[in-house]
Amino acid sequence: MLQLSWLHVLLFPLLVVLMIVFMGVNSTLHYQLGTESGRFWLTTTIGFIIVSLLMALWFRKPANDY
């Protein structure tokens, strides 16, 4: 189940590439970086990805057996 936490690391860049293919580079950059909501959601998404990866790395470690 922890392997699924790495899925969005692959899917998010794929989504950005698809946006560039269908909308063009200028439109994608404008919507992601040129608007307030685009910057907010891009930052929020990257933040969630980083937190998810940190949690996946943390729970991958074996438990301490004393």
Quick recap:
By secondary structure, the chain is mainly alpha-helical. The protein has helices at residues 7-23, 25-33, 36-60. The mean pLDDT is 86.
* End-to-end distance: 26 Å
Strand residue content? under 5%
Structure annotation, total helices: 3
User: How would you classify the helix and strand content by structural class?
Assistant: mainly alpha
Q: Can you describe what's shown?
A:
The chain has 66 residues and is an all-alpha fold. Helix content is 77%, strand content 0%. It is built from 3 helices and no strands. It has helices at residues 7-23, 25-33, 36-60. Helix 1 crosses helix 2 (25-33). It is elongated. The two termini are 26 Å apart. The model has no long low-confidence stretch (mean pLDDT 86).
Describe this protein with a few key phrases.
mainly alpha, elongated, single chain, 66 residues
Task: Note the topology.
Blueprint: H1 7-23, H2 25-33, H3 36-60
